[in-house]
């Protein structure tokens, strides 16, 4: 901004983890910064701040989004789910349980984004949406084999290399294979 100019602010209304939230923020604020700095939801991480690592992945209207690239004001009225909103009260989401049971994390920094992305993967597969490696586009469902999961999760980087556990956890949560 040029010297003397003032920031443009707007009221942003979102439904975050099932709760209506209203915040007045600079229109340049990313969804990630709004969630972390204004709403105190620090589960989603700022890894690269360029949409390349997936640590900031959240669900917006049921779809995976890199929150560091999304302007909060552009998601007026959206339904946002962060890692804090995956559990059902004290009951962990099936993917959260599967991540623990399959040692799908090491340092844990990428885990919130991995979990939100994995929830999106299961939903996409359940809708029958193909990926680049989907073998049979005419099938009734998408088989979530290792190649399919790795392709769909390729936007989420784990610097510790916990990929075998992540893939196993997603397969377990998907019921071992085909999502229909």
Automatic annotation (TrEMBL):
Keyword Oxidoreductase appears in the UniProt entry: yes
Coiled coil: none
Record's keyword annotation contains Metal-binding: yes
Alphabetic keyword roster: 2Fe-2S, Iron, Iron-sulfur, Metal-binding, Oxidoreductase
Pfam families according to UniProt: Fer2 (PF00111), Fer2_2 (PF01799)
Pathway info: Alkaloid degradation; nicotine degradation
Domain annotation 2Fe-2S ferredoxin-type: ranges: 10-86
Alphabetized Gene3D superfamilies for the sequence: 3.10.20.30, [2Fe-2S]-binding domain (1.10.150.120)
PROSITE patterns: 2FE2S_FER_1, 2FE2S_FER_2
Protein name per UniProt: (2Fe-2S)-binding protein
Species whose genome carries this gene: Bailinhaonella thermotolerans
């Amino acid at each position: 901004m040029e010297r003397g100019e003032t920031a443009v602010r707007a009221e942003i209304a979102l439904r975050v983890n099932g709760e209506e939230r209203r915040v007045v923020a600079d229109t340049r604020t990313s969804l990630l910064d709004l969630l972390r700095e204004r709403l105190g939801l620090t589960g989603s991480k700022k890894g690269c701040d360029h949409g390349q690592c997936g640590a900031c992945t959240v669900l917006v209207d049921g779809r995976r989004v890199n929150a560091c690239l999304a302007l909060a004001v552009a998601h007026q009225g959206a339904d946002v789910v962060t890692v804090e909103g995956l559990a059902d009260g004290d009951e962990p989401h099936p993917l959260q349980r599967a991540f623990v049971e399959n040692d799908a994390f090491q340092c844990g920094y990428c885990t919130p984004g991995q979990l939100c992305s994995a929830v999106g993967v299961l939903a996409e597969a359940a809708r029958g949406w193909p990926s680049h490696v989907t073998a049979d586009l005419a099938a009734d469902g998408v088989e979530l084999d290792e190649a399919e999961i790795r392709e769909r999760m390729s936007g989420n980087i784990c610097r510790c290399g916990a990929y075998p556990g992540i893939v196993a956890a997603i397969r377990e949560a998907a019921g071992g294979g085909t999502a229909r």
